[in-house]
Amino acid sequence: MYMKEKIFVSDLVEGSFITSVFLVADKTLRTTKSGNPFLALDLADKSGNIDSKVWDNAEAIGSRFEADDFVMVEAQVESYRGQLQLNVRDLKRMDDDDVALEDFIPASRWDRDEMLEQLKDVVGREIKSPEMLRFFDALFEEKQLMKQFTLAPAAKGNHHAYLGGLLEHALSMTRLAVRMTRHYAHYYPGMLNQDLVIAGCVLHDIGKCFELSYGRSFNYTTEGQLVGHIVQGVELITAIAKKVSPPLPAEMLMQLKHLVLSHHGKLEYGSPILPRTAEALLLHEIDMIDSRMNMYSNMVAEHEGGTNSEEAFTDYQRLFQGRMYMGDDTGTKWAKTTTPNEDDLEGPGAAAVLEAEGTPKGERRQPASAGESDPNLSLFSE
Prior knowledge:
Blueprint: E1 17-31, E2 37-45, E3 48-54, H1 58-62, E4 70-80, E5 83-94, H2 112-126, H3 130-140, H4 143-151, H5 165-187, H6 194-203, H7 208-211, E6 212-213, E7 219-220, H8 222-226, H9 229-242, H10 250-262, H11 278-304, E8 313-317, E9 322-325, H12 352-356
Helix pairs in contact: 2-5, 5-6, 5-11, 6-10, 6-11, 9-10, 10-11
């Protein structure tokens, strides 16, 4: 990993000499009026772009890299026609593994590795079926998959569209699932299987690890466009199950696949089948809640940073089919409400809530015995 402190485009100061890593958004070899070659570069990071030129040894330096490469640049910050510009003195290509992607692509505000550990902890404590736990043990052992799972966005745009967004979305949904299944266990005992709802929250979008590319910017892979994350998720369930011995119950695997196949809720939303179980219905609603709250948060941030931030209503929002109310001078605007200190949060939601409800952190809940009146007994365990 490149250890020198990153200098962002937004922090550049005229007259300074910098050494920092940038993404090459564009590269063109041109010639001056006198016929000398030079490189015109558009260098970028998450804070913006800057016009850059290589005047000396342009052809030799240009042979070291291509557009979309990460490069470490030594350059003088200058001004040209009132705009900052980099006069690049030297440059070398950087390997992707030596670059912090979050310096170039929007990333979750929470540590991705910590979120993964929290997800594993919730799964290990709240799932009671030994068969379901064996499935997730096998899933979490897939190191390359888990690396992708911690990096992938949940979408190209709309909601959780940043590095770690998929994992953040899954963790938030899983915590909602624990709360909601416990809530409805009091109203409709025995109707919901908590193991399935939790599993659906973890697995419903896991195919996006393959549907999306996220090395430079967010886009769709060829397989993602031709197959799609729903089918990719179902194929992954089959592949993981084949690695587990003794074989997992066919009924359990069928229900897991149904959750993935139906989680969009409607045929016109892309699901090949409608939800046919209580768990699938609840999964779809949890997905809608969490994605819409993230999208609403993004809308609030955009409104706060816009030119109309003092207006009570946002601009027209296509998703919500109207202008959204932010409050007025007589009340408290959403942008000004008190929020929890991020240092007190562990990922999307306070992890302490689960411990407060009776399960010590790091311990698995034990399966209820046949004599206990537990409304969430596993469908797959005796």
